[in-house]
Amino acid sequence: IGFLVAWLNSDESGNWCKRNLKKKGDVYEYKPTALKNLPVPLLDTKEKRKIADEIAAEVEAMLESTSDKESDLMSVKVKKLIQGIV
Q: Which of 19, 37, 60, 66 has the highest CB neighbour number within 10 Å of its CB?
């Protein structure tokens, strides 16, 4: 679940949404019919699964962190890790 949370909050996912979702005013409409087409990276190798596990662990640590600075550092790490999967 942590990997999916990270992916849904990633720049890659956000860019796809900007290109494919309709806007209502300043807000994108996240309707199930559109979101079912959102691409999610296939974790088809051991290396990709290992990276996904690392991302999930970082997300869990971010959720438990009480330090904004620490969370920001973890967020940067997650962004870099996602690049290893796409």
A: 60
